[in-house]
Design brief:
Helix content is 77%, strand content 1%. The chain is an all-alpha fold. It is globular.
Length: 330
């Protein structure tokens, strides 16, 4: 039991943070723990969690995906344009959009793994290119309404449980199997720990990198499809809010921004923390700007804690303490 706690302490701390935030929010907003409000919180957290699904794989593998906002936005806009509000068209539209998201991820991964482009530069450039392409394609004009089936997936329920929460739970199970039980998961962790060592150990580093970005592109597209059902329409810029949200959720969940550690179950907790924080802000009379400050602070702190500089500092402090103890005993 103690070994389990030691291995998963950061994830457990993230869930403890969820519980604390729920209690704090309930104190300032007494109706927050009502079943209907908790359902709404889970639905909003599901969007963050689905966007952060692929980001989790990319970050554990030592990269970062900044193209998520406009992969999401392109999928949302193209869904409404291609389907034209008709459910029957979804038979080919959804697979096409998911494949398109994966193809964009392939471009990102190939740029990083095969051509040595830094992940931040590669994915940010792709994000800007996608923004320009969709603006040219749509001309900024309004799009048709969302098909009824997509609305059901986003806001419908099976009994008391929202459908999108069931989708999120299925993705969480899939991520757990991939990261914990598959060779691909072991390769992702090895890649994030040290790409050089992983390559010498026989890990197919290029293929693993490309696959993580393809997963990120596909799940960003899925999030765009579902988010269109929640909002009822697709609009320009609807994915912008999910850039730092996806990174912050992974970081809060205990993953190292520098790669090599983390788990999607931690990302689930991170998504819940961020969503509850969003609900807490109005109760404290704070603006959304405060939430951006929180995102930035979380990323800064987690990167600092994960950095080698901090590791060297802690090792130096421990060595100094042992030295003083030796002098005292002597």
């Amino acid at each position: 039991m103690s070994g389990f706690v030691a291995r998963n302490r950061l994830i457990l701390l993230a869930y403890a943070g969820v519980a604390v935030l729920l209690l704090i929010t309930a104190l300032f907003s007494p109706g927050f723990l009502a079943p209907s409000n908790l359902r709404s919180t889970l639905v909003l957290a599901a969007f963050v969690g689905i966007v952060a699904f692929g980001q989790t794989f990319v970050i554990i593998g030592g990269g970062i995906d900044l193209s998520i906002p406009w992969v999401l936005n392109c999928a949302a806009l193209l869904l409404t344009l291609m389907a034209g509000g008709q459910d029957v068209a979804l038979i080919w539209v959804i697979p096409l959009l998911l494949a398109g998201g994966a193809a964009i991820g392939f471009v990102n991964g190939a740029g990083v793994a095969l051509f040595g482009v830094p992940p931040i530069i590669m994915t940010l450039a792709v994000n800007v290119i996608l923004q320009g392409l969709i603006l040219v394609y749509t001309g900024g004009s309004p799009t048709p309404s969302t098909p009824a089936l997509i609305k059901y997936l986003a806001v419908g329920r099976v009994g008391p449980i929202p459908v999108i929460v069931l989708i999120w739970a299925a993705l969480a199970l899939l991520a757990t199997v991939l990261l914990s039980k598959s060779a691909f998961g072991r390769h992702v962790y090895a890649l994030g720990t040290s790409a050089t060592v992983a390559e010498f150990s026989g890990v197919p580093t290029a293929r693993t990198t490309i696959l993580t970005y393809m997963i990120s592109g596909a799940t960003a597209a899925l999030a765009g499809i579902l988010l269109t059902g929640y909002s009822g329409v697709a609009y320009l810029g609807m994915g912008d809010a999910y850039l730092f949200t996806s990174v912050a959720a992974v970081a809060i969940g205990g993953a190292s921004i520098l790669g090599g550690s983390g788990h999607y179950l931690g990302t689930v907790a991170g998504a819940l923390v961020l969503t509850i924080l969003t609900g807490l802000l109005p109760a404290l009379n704070l603006s959304n700007g405060a939430l951006l400050v929180v995102y930035g602070a979380v990323i800064l702190v987690t990167v600092s804690i994960s950095s080698e500089t901090w590791g060297e500092l802690f090792r130096h402090l421990r060595a100094s303490a042992r030295s003083r103890q030796g002098e005292t005993s002597g």
